[in-house]
Amino acid sequence: MSFPSDLEIARSVTPRPIVDIAAELGIEPDELELYGPTKAKVRLEAITRLEAERPRGKYVVVTAITPTPLGEGKSTTTVGLAQGLNRIGRKASVNIRQPSLGPVFGIKGGAAGGGYSQVIPMEDFNLHLTGDVHAIGAAHNLAGAFIDNSLHHKNPLGIDPHGILWPRVLDISDRALRHVVIGLGGREDGVPRETEFVITVASEVMAVLALATDLFELRDRLGRMVLATRTDGSPVTAEDLGVAGAMTVLLRDAIKPNLLQTLEGGPAFVHCGPFGNIAHGNNSIIADRLALVTNDIVCTEAGFGADMGAEKFFDIKCRASGLAPDAAVVVATVRALKMHGGVGKIVAGKPLDPALLEENVEAVRTGASNLAAHIATVRKYGIPAVVAINSFPTDTPAEVEAIREVALAAGARDAVVATHFTDGGAGATDLAEAVWAAAEDPSRSFRLLYPDEAPLGEKILTIVKEIYGGDGIELTPAAQKSLKLYESMGFGNLPICMAKTQYSISHDAALKGAPKGFTVPIREIRLSAGAGFVTPLCGEMRTMPGLPSKPGGENIDIDAEGNVVGLF
Fold first, then answer.
1. N or C end of the chain: smaller count of CB under 10 Å?
2. Are residues 208 and 307 in the same domain?
3. Same domain flag for 103 and 197
4. 3-state class (DSSP) for residue 528
5. What is the value of pTM for the model shown?
6. What would the pLDDT profile of 280-318 be if each residue is shown by its tens digit?
7. Is residue 151 part of a domain?
8. By residue range, what is the domain housing residue 168?
9. Average confidence score pLDDT of the chain
10. Would residue 81 count as lying in a domain?
Protein backbone atom coordinates (compact mmCIF):
# COMPACT_ATOMS: atom_id res chain seq x y z
CA MET A 1 0.00 0.00 0.00
CA SER A 2 1.48 3.33 -1.04
CA PHE A 3 1.93 6.20 1.38
CA PRO A 4 -0.89 8.76 0.96
CA SER A 5 -0.16 12.16 -0.57
CA ASP A 6 0.11 15.27 1.57
CA LEU A 7 -3.22 16.47 0.24
CA GLU A 8 -4.90 13.13 1.02
CA ILE A 9 -3.51 13.22 4.58
CA ALA A 10 -4.60 16.81 5.07
CA ARG A 11 -8.14 16.01 3.90
CA SER A 12 -8.35 12.95 6.18
CA VAL A 13 -8.38 15.20 9.25
CA THR A 14 -11.40 17.20 10.40
CA PRO A 15 -10.01 20.57 11.51
CA ARG A 16 -10.94 21.93 14.90
CA PRO A 17 -12.92 25.19 14.95
CA ILE A 18 -10.33 27.95 14.94
CA VAL A 19 -12.27 29.80 17.64
CA ASP A 20 -11.54 26.91 20.04
CA ILE A 21 -7.80 27.08 19.33
CA ALA A 22 -7.84 30.87 19.82
CA ALA A 23 -9.67 30.50 23.12
CA GLU A 24 -7.05 28.02 24.38
CA LEU A 25 -4.39 30.62 23.58
CA GLY A 26 -6.23 33.28 25.57
CA ILE A 27 -7.29 35.29 22.52
CA GLU A 28 -10.65 36.97 23.10
CA PRO A 29 -13.50 36.57 20.56
CA ASP A 30 -13.42 40.29 19.71
CA GLU A 31 -9.69 40.01 18.96
CA LEU A 32 -10.34 37.43 16.25
CA GLU A 33 -11.38 38.09 12.64
CA LEU A 34 -12.71 34.88 11.10
CA TYR A 35 -12.05 33.79 7.52
CA GLY A 36 -14.38 30.83 7.65
CA PRO A 37 -14.33 28.17 10.39
CA THR A 38 -10.67 27.09 10.09
CA LYS A 39 -8.60 30.26 9.75
CA ALA A 40 -8.61 33.72 11.25
CA LYS A 41 -6.63 36.89 11.65
CA VAL A 42 -5.70 38.13 15.11
CA ARG A 43 -5.98 41.85 15.86
CA LEU A 44 -2.86 43.56 17.08
CA GLU A 45 -4.64 44.68 20.24
CA ALA A 46 -4.37 41.07 21.42
CA ILE A 47 -0.58 41.27 21.35
CA THR A 48 -0.53 44.49 23.36
CA ARG A 49 -2.89 43.05 25.99
CA LEU A 50 -1.20 39.68 26.30
CA GLU A 51 2.35 41.07 26.45
CA ALA A 52 1.28 43.12 29.45
CA GLU A 53 -0.26 40.09 31.15
CA ARG A 54 2.01 37.13 30.44
CA PRO A 55 5.67 36.10 30.44
CA ARG A 56 7.45 35.24 27.21
CA GLY A 57 7.80 31.58 26.18
CA LYS A 58 10.90 29.86 24.82
CA TYR A 59 12.02 30.97 21.36
CA VAL A 60 13.45 28.32 19.02
CA VAL A 61 14.56 28.87 15.41
CA VAL A 62 14.52 25.90 13.04
CA THR A 63 17.15 25.99 10.29
CA ALA A 64 18.95 23.36 8.22
CA ILE A 65 21.98 22.16 6.34
CA THR A 66 22.47 23.33 2.75
CA PRO A 67 19.45 21.78 1.00
CA THR A 68 19.15 19.76 -2.18
CA PRO A 69 16.60 20.86 -4.82
CA LEU A 70 14.12 18.54 -3.06
CA GLY A 71 14.47 20.33 0.28
CA GLU A 72 15.29 18.49 3.48
CA GLY A 73 11.99 18.77 5.33
CA LYS A 74 12.66 21.90 7.37
CA SER A 75 9.04 23.09 7.32
CA THR A 76 7.87 19.55 8.02
CA THR A 77 10.29 19.29 10.93
CA THR A 78 9.19 22.65 12.32
CA VAL A 79 5.58 21.45 12.35
CA GLY A 80 6.49 17.99 13.66
CA LEU A 81 8.59 19.48 16.45
CA ALA A 82 5.70 21.69 17.59
CA GLN A 83 3.40 18.65 17.54
CA GLY A 84 6.00 16.67 19.50
CA LEU A 85 6.34 19.42 22.10
CA ASN A 86 2.58 19.48 22.59
CA ARG A 87 2.64 15.70 23.07
CA ILE A 88 5.20 15.96 25.89
CA GLY A 89 3.06 18.54 27.68
CA ARG A 90 4.69 21.78 26.46
CA LYS A 91 2.21 24.22 24.98
CA ALA A 92 3.80 24.90 21.60
CA SER A 93 3.13 26.88 18.43
CA VAL A 94 4.61 26.55 14.97
CA ASN A 95 5.34 29.86 13.17
CA ILE A 96 6.03 29.63 9.45
CA ARG A 97 5.89 31.72 6.31
CA GLN A 98 3.14 31.75 3.73
CA PRO A 99 4.44 30.34 0.43
CA SER A 100 4.70 32.29 -2.80
CA LEU A 101 2.57 31.15 -5.71
CA GLY A 102 5.77 31.09 -7.79
CA PRO A 103 7.16 27.89 -6.20
CA VAL A 104 3.67 26.42 -5.71
CA PHE A 105 3.06 26.45 -9.47
CA GLY A 106 6.75 26.03 -10.31
CA ILE A 107 9.11 23.37 -9.03
CA LYS A 108 8.98 23.28 -5.23
CA GLY A 109 5.26 22.95 -4.60
CA GLY A 110 3.59 23.89 -1.33
CA ALA A 111 5.18 24.74 1.98
CA ALA A 112 2.68 23.61 4.60
CA GLY A 113 4.91 20.79 5.81
CA GLY A 114 4.39 17.21 4.71
CA GLY A 115 3.12 13.76 5.61
CA TYR A 116 1.67 13.75 9.11
CA SER A 117 3.30 17.05 10.07
CA GLN A 118 1.36 19.71 8.21
CA VAL A 119 -0.49 22.97 8.69
CA ILE A 120 -4.10 22.83 7.57
CA PRO A 121 -6.24 23.68 5.66
CA MET A 122 -3.48 22.77 3.20
CA GLU A 123 -5.15 24.18 0.07
CA ASP A 124 -5.86 27.55 1.70
CA PHE A 125 -2.36 27.72 3.17
CA ASN A 126 -0.77 27.36 -0.27
CA LEU A 127 -3.32 29.27 -2.35
CA HIS A 128 -4.00 32.91 -1.35
CA LEU A 129 -4.82 32.22 2.34
CA THR A 130 -6.25 35.58 3.52
CA GLY A 131 -4.89 37.63 0.64
CA ASP A 132 -1.83 39.11 2.36
CA VAL A 133 0.57 38.56 -0.55
CA HIS A 134 -1.85 40.21 -2.96
CA ALA A 135 -2.17 43.21 -0.66
CA ILE A 136 1.63 43.49 -0.57
CA GLY A 137 1.79 43.34 -4.36
CA ALA A 138 -0.88 46.03 -4.69
CA ALA A 139 0.90 48.33 -2.22
CA HIS A 140 4.25 47.83 -3.95
CA ASN A 141 2.88 48.46 -7.44
CA LEU A 142 0.97 51.51 -6.24
CA ALA A 143 4.33 53.07 -5.35
CA GLY A 144 5.61 52.14 -8.81
CA ALA A 145 2.61 53.81 -10.42
CA PHE A 146 3.21 56.97 -8.37
CA ILE A 147 6.82 57.15 -9.58
CA ASP A 148 5.86 56.94 -13.24
CA ASN A 149 2.95 59.29 -12.73
CA SER A 150 5.33 61.86 -11.24
CA LEU A 151 7.62 61.53 -14.25
CA HIS A 152 4.64 61.97 -16.58
CA HIS A 153 3.47 65.14 -14.81
CA LYS A 154 6.66 67.16 -15.40
CA ASN A 155 8.74 65.40 -12.73
CA PRO A 156 8.30 67.93 -9.89
CA LEU A 157 10.63 65.97 -7.56
CA GLY A 158 13.48 65.98 -10.04
CA ILE A 159 13.67 62.17 -10.21
CA ASP A 160 16.53 60.88 -12.32
CA PRO A 161 14.88 58.48 -14.82
CA HIS A 162 18.06 56.38 -14.63
CA GLY A 163 18.02 56.45 -10.82
CA ILE A 164 14.71 54.67 -10.24
CA LEU A 165 15.28 51.82 -7.80
CA TRP A 166 11.73 50.50 -7.54
CA PRO A 167 10.70 47.55 -9.76
CA ARG A 168 7.22 46.15 -10.26
CA VAL A 169 6.25 42.84 -8.58
CA LEU A 170 4.25 39.74 -9.45
CA ASP A 171 3.72 36.60 -7.33
CA ILE A 172 4.29 34.22 -10.23
CA SER A 173 7.62 32.97 -11.54
CA ASP A 174 7.98 34.62 -14.97
CA ARG A 175 11.45 35.02 -16.48
CA ALA A 176 10.06 37.03 -19.42
CA LEU A 177 9.44 39.94 -17.03
CA ARG A 178 12.96 40.18 -15.65
CA HIS A 179 13.78 43.05 -17.99
CA VAL A 180 10.99 45.11 -19.54
CA VAL A 181 10.37 48.48 -21.20
CA ILE A 182 7.33 50.44 -20.05
CA GLY A 183 5.67 53.66 -21.22
CA LEU A 184 5.50 52.70 -24.89
CA GLY A 185 2.64 53.85 -27.11
CA GLY A 186 2.70 57.63 -27.01
CA ARG A 187 2.74 60.75 -24.85
CA GLU A 188 -0.34 59.76 -22.83
CA ASP A 189 1.08 56.33 -21.99
CA GLY A 190 3.86 57.54 -19.73
CA VAL A 191 7.60 58.10 -20.02
CA PRO A 192 9.37 55.18 -21.74
CA ARG A 193 12.05 53.55 -19.59
CA GLU A 194 13.61 50.20 -18.76
CA THR A 195 12.62 48.48 -15.55
CA GLU A 196 12.15 44.98 -14.14
CA PHE A 197 9.76 42.72 -12.27
CA VAL A 198 10.73 40.81 -9.14
CA ILE A 199 8.67 38.15 -7.40
CA THR A 200 6.38 39.67 -4.75
CA VAL A 201 8.01 37.86 -1.85
CA ALA A 202 11.27 39.68 -2.74
CA SER A 203 9.53 43.06 -2.46
CA GLU A 204 10.78 45.44 0.19
CA VAL A 205 7.14 45.86 1.21
CA MET A 206 7.08 42.17 2.18
CA ALA A 207 10.26 42.64 4.22
CA VAL A 208 8.83 45.78 5.86
CA LEU A 209 5.63 43.99 6.86
CA ALA A 210 7.59 41.08 8.33
CA LEU A 211 9.80 43.39 10.42
CA ALA A 212 7.21 45.98 11.54
CA THR A 213 6.06 45.95 15.15
CA ASP A 214 2.70 47.71 14.73
CA LEU A 215 0.62 49.64 12.19
CA PHE A 216 2.23 52.98 12.95
CA GLU A 217 5.77 51.68 12.71
CA LEU A 218 4.72 50.04 9.42
CA ARG A 219 3.62 53.49 8.22
CA ASP A 220 6.99 54.98 9.22
CA ARG A 221 8.96 52.20 7.55
CA LEU A 222 6.98 52.52 4.31
CA GLY A 223 7.58 56.26 4.30
CA ARG A 224 11.35 55.73 4.63
CA MET A 225 11.64 53.44 1.61
CA VAL A 226 13.93 54.94 -1.04
CA LEU A 227 12.27 54.51 -4.42
CA ALA A 228 14.61 56.59 -6.59
CA THR A 229 17.34 59.20 -6.56
CA ARG A 230 17.38 62.72 -7.95
CA THR A 231 19.93 63.92 -10.48
CA ASP A 232 22.03 65.21 -7.57
CA GLY A 233 22.04 61.75 -5.97
CA SER A 234 19.69 62.60 -3.08
CA PRO A 235 17.02 60.00 -2.19
CA VAL A 236 13.35 60.15 -3.14
CA THR A 237 11.24 58.29 -0.58
CA ALA A 238 7.68 56.99 -0.56
CA GLU A 239 6.94 59.86 1.82
CA ASP A 240 8.26 62.37 -0.74
CA LEU A 241 5.93 60.87 -3.35
CA GLY A 242 2.95 61.04 -1.00
CA VAL A 243 2.17 57.35 -1.40
CA ALA A 244 3.18 55.87 2.00
CA GLY A 245 -0.21 56.53 3.62
CA ALA A 246 -2.14 54.82 0.83
CA MET A 247 0.23 51.86 0.94
CA THR A 248 -0.40 51.54 4.69
CA VAL A 249 -4.15 51.53 4.10
CA LEU A 250 -3.75 48.64 1.64
CA LEU A 251 -1.84 46.69 4.31
CA ARG A 252 -4.02 47.44 7.34
CA ASP A 253 -5.44 43.88 7.34
CA ALA A 254 -2.31 42.16 6.02
CA ILE A 255 -0.36 43.24 9.13
CA LYS A 256 -2.57 41.03 11.32
CA PRO A 257 -1.10 37.52 11.75
CA ASN A 258 -3.03 34.50 10.50
CA LEU A 259 -4.00 31.70 12.90
CA LEU A 260 -4.31 28.17 11.51
CA GLN A 261 -3.65 24.73 13.02
CA THR A 262 -1.51 21.63 12.67
CA LEU A 263 -2.88 18.22 11.74
CA GLU A 264 -2.95 17.45 15.48
CA GLY A 265 -4.93 20.57 16.37
CA GLY A 266 -2.13 22.73 17.76
CA PRO A 267 -1.79 26.43 16.91
CA ALA A 268 0.07 27.61 13.80
CA PHE A 269 0.75 31.27 13.02
CA VAL A 270 1.33 31.91 9.32
CA HIS A 271 2.42 35.42 8.42
CA CYS A 272 4.52 36.95 5.63
CA GLY A 273 6.78 35.07 3.24
CA PRO A 274 10.05 36.76 2.29
CA PHE A 275 12.34 34.45 0.28
CA GLY A 276 15.40 33.23 2.17
CA ASN A 277 17.80 33.44 -0.77
CA ILE A 278 16.76 36.98 -1.80
CA ALA A 279 15.09 38.62 1.21
CA HIS A 280 15.47 37.79 4.91
CA GLY A 281 13.59 34.50 4.80
CA ASN A 282 11.60 34.65 8.06
CA ASN A 283 8.00 35.02 9.13
CA SER A 284 6.90 38.19 10.92
CA ILE A 285 8.04 39.64 14.22
CA ILE A 286 4.40 40.31 15.04
CA ALA A 287 3.45 36.62 14.69
CA ASP A 288 6.38 35.55 16.86
CA ARG A 289 5.50 38.08 19.56
CA LEU A 290 1.91 36.84 19.66
CA ALA A 291 2.98 33.20 19.79
CA LEU A 292 5.53 33.85 22.53
CA VAL A 293 2.89 35.20 24.94
CA THR A 294 0.36 32.46 24.19
CA ASN A 295 2.66 29.41 24.37
CA ASP A 296 5.40 27.83 26.48
CA ILE A 297 7.61 27.49 23.41
CA VAL A 298 7.55 28.73 19.82
CA CYS A 299 9.15 26.98 16.83
CA THR A 300 9.83 29.59 14.16
CA GLU A 301 11.29 28.61 10.79
CA ALA A 302 14.13 30.38 8.96
CA GLY A 303 14.57 29.81 5.23
CA PHE A 304 17.11 27.39 3.71
CA GLY A 305 20.43 26.69 5.52
CA ALA A 306 21.89 28.39 8.57
CA ASP A 307 24.06 30.50 6.22
CA MET A 308 20.87 32.01 4.79
CA GLY A 309 17.68 32.24 6.87
CA ALA A 310 19.28 31.66 10.28
CA GLU A 311 22.01 34.27 9.78
CA LYS A 312 19.32 36.74 8.73
CA PHE A 313 17.07 35.67 11.60
CA PHE A 314 19.83 36.52 14.05
CA ASP A 315 21.36 39.60 12.43
CA ILE A 316 18.24 41.21 10.92
CA LYS A 317 15.08 39.90 12.60
CA CYS A 318 16.39 39.61 16.17
CA ARG A 319 18.23 42.93 15.80
CA ALA A 320 14.92 44.56 14.82
CA SER A 321 12.71 42.81 17.40
CA GLY A 322 15.07 42.78 20.36
CA LEU A 323 14.01 39.17 21.00
CA ALA A 324 16.79 36.74 21.91
CA PRO A 325 16.40 33.10 20.79
CA ASP A 326 16.85 30.30 23.29
CA ALA A 327 17.93 27.48 20.95
CA ALA A 328 18.25 26.43 17.33
CA VAL A 329 17.43 23.22 15.48
CA VAL A 330 19.52 22.22 12.44
CA VAL A 331 17.68 19.79 10.15
CA ALA A 332 19.79 17.23 8.27
CA THR A 333 19.11 14.24 6.04
CA VAL A 334 21.30 11.30 5.11
CA ARG A 335 20.63 11.75 1.38
CA ALA A 336 21.69 15.41 1.38
CA LEU A 337 24.89 14.69 3.28
CA LYS A 338 25.73 11.93 0.81
CA MET A 339 25.30 14.45 -1.99
CA HIS A 340 27.59 16.89 -0.19
CA GLY A 341 30.00 13.96 0.12
CA GLY A 342 30.17 13.66 -3.67
CA VAL A 343 27.71 10.82 -4.21
CA GLY A 344 24.78 11.01 -6.61
CA LYS A 345 22.94 13.92 -8.14
CA ILE A 346 19.55 15.24 -7.07
CA VAL A 347 17.31 16.83 -9.71
CA ALA A 348 13.82 18.01 -8.79
CA GLY A 349 11.14 16.20 -10.76
CA LYS A 350 13.35 13.18 -11.55
CA PRO A 351 13.70 9.82 -9.75
CA LEU A 352 16.23 9.79 -6.92
CA ASP A 353 19.72 8.64 -7.93
CA PRO A 354 20.04 4.96 -6.81
CA ALA A 355 23.48 5.73 -5.35
CA LEU A 356 21.77 7.85 -2.69
CA LEU A 357 19.70 4.88 -1.55
CA GLU A 358 22.67 2.62 -0.88
CA GLU A 359 24.55 2.64 2.44
CA ASN A 360 27.65 4.85 2.19
CA VAL A 361 28.90 5.84 5.62
CA GLU A 362 32.06 7.42 4.25
CA ALA A 363 30.08 9.73 1.96
CA VAL A 364 27.90 10.74 4.91
CA ARG A 365 30.97 11.54 7.00
CA THR A 366 32.54 13.54 4.18
CA GLY A 367 29.32 15.45 3.44
CA ALA A 368 28.74 16.07 7.14
CA SER A 369 31.36 18.80 6.90
CA ASN A 370 28.39 20.85 5.68
CA LEU A 371 26.43 20.02 8.84
CA ALA A 372 29.42 20.90 11.01
CA ALA A 373 29.71 24.29 9.29
CA HIS A 374 26.05 25.09 9.99
CA ILE A 375 26.36 24.03 13.62
CA ALA A 376 29.38 26.33 13.89
CA THR A 377 27.30 29.17 12.44
CA VAL A 378 24.61 28.72 15.10
CA ARG A 379 27.20 28.51 17.87
CA LYS A 380 28.76 31.82 16.77
CA TYR A 381 25.57 33.48 18.03
CA GLY A 382 25.92 31.96 21.49
CA ILE A 383 22.91 29.64 21.48
CA PRO A 384 22.74 25.82 21.73
CA ALA A 385 22.12 23.74 18.61
CA VAL A 386 20.19 20.48 18.35
CA VAL A 387 20.44 18.44 15.14
CA ALA A 388 17.20 16.90 13.87
CA ILE A 389 17.97 13.90 11.66
CA ASN A 390 14.93 13.85 9.37
CA SER A 391 14.52 10.12 8.85
CA PHE A 392 13.94 8.29 5.56
CA PRO A 393 13.27 4.50 5.27
CA THR A 394 16.55 3.94 3.39
CA ASP A 395 18.71 5.45 6.17
CA THR A 396 20.87 2.85 7.93
CA PRO A 397 21.89 2.83 11.62
CA ALA A 398 25.55 3.27 10.67
CA GLU A 399 24.77 6.36 8.57
CA VAL A 400 22.68 7.88 11.34
CA GLU A 401 25.41 7.20 13.90
CA ALA A 402 27.95 8.91 11.63
CA ILE A 403 25.77 12.04 11.61
CA ARG A 404 25.47 11.94 15.40
CA GLU A 405 29.22 11.64 15.86
CA VAL A 406 29.98 14.55 13.51
CA ALA A 407 27.23 16.70 15.04
CA LEU A 408 28.39 16.21 18.62
CA ALA A 409 32.04 16.73 17.68
CA ALA A 410 31.05 20.00 15.97
CA GLY A 411 29.44 21.32 19.15
CA ALA A 412 25.80 20.31 18.83
CA ARG A 413 24.09 19.77 22.16
CA ASP A 414 22.31 16.70 20.81
CA ALA A 415 21.44 14.93 17.56
CA VAL A 416 18.11 13.10 17.42
CA VAL A 417 16.36 10.98 14.82
CA ALA A 418 12.82 12.15 14.06
CA THR A 419 10.09 10.28 12.16
CA HIS A 420 7.46 13.03 12.22
CA PHE A 421 6.71 12.72 8.48
CA THR A 422 5.28 9.23 8.94
CA ASP A 423 4.37 9.35 12.63
CA GLY A 424 3.40 12.96 13.29
CA GLY A 425 4.10 14.39 16.72
CA ALA A 426 4.71 10.91 18.16
CA GLY A 427 7.75 10.64 15.90
CA ALA A 428 9.22 13.88 17.25
CA THR A 429 8.88 13.46 21.02
CA ASP A 430 12.57 12.60 21.48
CA LEU A 431 13.48 15.67 19.44
CA ALA A 432 11.03 17.73 21.49
CA GLU A 433 12.64 16.63 24.76
CA ALA A 434 16.10 17.53 23.43
CA VAL A 435 14.96 20.94 22.17
CA TRP A 436 13.19 21.81 25.42
CA ALA A 437 16.31 20.91 27.38
CA ALA A 438 18.45 23.04 25.04
CA ALA A 439 16.09 26.00 25.37
CA GLU A 440 16.52 25.84 29.16
CA ASP A 441 20.32 25.75 28.94
CA PRO A 442 21.52 28.56 31.26
CA SER A 443 24.85 28.86 29.42
CA ARG A 444 23.31 30.43 26.32
CA SER A 445 24.32 34.04 25.67
CA PHE A 446 22.92 35.43 22.44
CA ARG A 447 25.13 37.83 20.50
CA LEU A 448 25.07 39.41 17.05
CA LEU A 449 27.75 38.81 14.43
CA TYR A 450 28.70 42.45 13.87
CA PRO A 451 27.93 45.85 15.42
CA ASP A 452 25.67 48.47 13.84
CA GLU A 453 28.49 50.96 13.56
CA ALA A 454 30.76 48.78 11.40
CA PRO A 455 31.08 50.01 7.78
CA LEU A 456 28.83 48.25 5.26
CA GLY A 457 31.76 46.69 3.40
CA GLU A 458 33.18 45.33 6.66
CA LYS A 459 29.83 43.77 7.55
CA ILE A 460 29.65 42.03 4.17
CA LEU A 461 33.20 40.75 4.57
CA THR A 462 32.44 39.49 8.09
CA ILE A 463 29.52 37.41 6.81
CA VAL A 464 31.60 35.99 3.97
CA LYS A 465 34.50 35.03 6.25
CA GLU A 466 32.67 34.01 9.42
CA ILE A 467 29.55 32.36 7.96
CA TYR A 468 30.46 31.25 4.42
CA GLY A 469 34.10 30.39 5.10
CA GLY A 470 35.31 32.51 2.18
CA ASP A 471 38.52 34.51 1.87
CA GLY A 472 37.11 37.82 0.69
CA ILE A 473 34.76 39.77 -1.57
CA GLU A 474 35.09 41.30 -5.03
CA LEU A 475 32.84 44.28 -5.70
CA THR A 476 32.06 45.60 -9.17
CA PRO A 477 32.52 49.36 -9.67
CA ALA A 478 28.73 49.73 -9.50
CA ALA A 479 28.63 47.91 -6.14
CA GLN A 480 31.44 50.08 -4.76
CA LYS A 481 29.59 53.20 -5.90
CA SER A 482 26.41 52.00 -4.17
CA LEU A 483 28.21 51.40 -0.87
CA LYS A 484 29.60 54.93 -0.90
CA LEU A 485 26.22 56.38 -1.85
CA TYR A 486 24.29 54.55 0.88
CA GLU A 487 26.81 55.49 3.56
CA SER A 488 26.71 59.13 2.42
CA MET A 489 22.90 59.00 2.74
CA GLY A 490 23.25 57.91 6.38
CA PHE A 491 22.45 54.21 5.93
CA GLY A 492 25.83 52.87 6.95
CA ASN A 493 24.45 51.52 10.26
CA LEU A 494 22.05 49.07 8.57
CA PRO A 495 22.55 45.30 8.71
CA ILE A 496 23.26 43.19 5.62
CA CYS A 497 20.79 40.91 3.78
CA MET A 498 22.84 38.76 1.41
CA ALA A 499 21.17 37.47 -1.78
CA LYS A 500 22.88 34.31 -2.99
CA THR A 501 22.30 30.70 -3.98
CA GLN A 502 20.74 28.44 -1.37
CA TYR A 503 22.50 25.37 -2.78
CA SER A 504 25.94 26.10 -1.34
CA ILE A 505 27.33 27.83 1.72
CA SER A 506 29.32 29.83 -0.83
CA HIS A 507 28.01 31.98 -3.71
CA ASP A 508 28.53 29.10 -6.20
CA ALA A 509 25.91 26.32 -6.26
CA ALA A 510 28.52 23.86 -7.56
CA LEU A 511 30.61 24.11 -4.36
CA LYS A 512 29.25 21.46 -1.99
CA GLY A 513 30.15 20.48 1.56
CA ALA A 514 32.01 23.22 3.42
CA PRO A 515 34.08 24.97 0.73
CA LYS A 516 37.08 27.17 1.53
CA GLY A 517 39.40 29.49 -0.34
CA PHE A 518 36.83 31.30 -2.49
CA THR A 519 36.08 34.96 -3.14
CA VAL A 520 32.46 36.11 -3.33
CA PRO A 521 31.70 38.36 -6.33
CA ILE A 522 29.14 41.07 -5.59
CA ARG A 523 27.70 42.57 -8.77
CA GLU A 524 25.13 44.93 -7.27
CA ILE A 525 24.04 46.31 -3.89
CA ARG A 526 20.47 47.42 -3.24
CA LEU A 527 19.11 49.60 -0.46
CA SER A 528 16.01 48.66 1.54
CA ALA A 529 15.80 51.70 3.81
CA GLY A 530 12.29 50.95 5.03
CA ALA A 531 13.00 47.33 5.84
CA GLY A 532 16.26 48.49 7.37
CA PHE A 533 18.92 46.52 5.50
CA VAL A 534 21.26 46.59 2.52
CA THR A 535 21.22 43.71 0.00
CA PRO A 536 24.35 42.62 -1.89
CA LEU A 537 23.55 40.42 -4.90
CA CYS A 538 26.16 37.66 -5.18
CA GLY A 539 27.11 36.04 -8.45
CA GLU A 540 24.19 35.38 -10.80
CA MET A 541 21.46 35.55 -8.16
CA ARG A 542 18.11 36.56 -9.72
CA THR A 543 15.14 38.20 -8.01
CA MET A 544 12.54 36.83 -10.47
CA PRO A 545 12.57 33.02 -10.79
CA GLY A 546 11.60 31.21 -13.99
CA LEU A 547 9.35 28.20 -14.44
CA PRO A 548 10.86 24.74 -15.14
CA SER A 549 10.25 22.83 -18.37
CA LYS A 550 7.37 21.01 -16.69
CA PRO A 551 5.84 23.39 -14.11
CA GLY A 552 4.11 21.90 -11.11
CA GLY A 553 1.04 23.87 -12.11
CA GLU A 554 0.45 21.36 -14.91
CA ASN A 555 -0.65 18.86 -12.25
CA ILE A 556 -3.03 21.19 -10.40
CA ASP A 557 -6.71 21.07 -11.33
CA ILE A 558 -10.27 20.69 -10.06
CA ASP A 559 -11.89 17.24 -9.84
CA ALA A 560 -15.52 16.32 -10.55
CA GLU A 561 -16.52 17.38 -7.01
CA GLY A 562 -14.78 20.74 -7.28
CA ASN A 563 -11.87 19.76 -5.03
CA VAL A 564 -8.28 20.84 -5.68
CA VAL A 565 -6.07 18.02 -6.98
CA GLY A 566 -2.36 17.84 -7.77
CA LEU A 567 -1.21 20.19 -5.01
CA PHE A 568 1.79 18.77 -3.18
1. N
2. no
3. no
4. strand
5. 0.94
6. 899 999 999 999 999 999 999 998 999 999 999 999 999
7. yes
8. 132-250
9. 94
10. yes
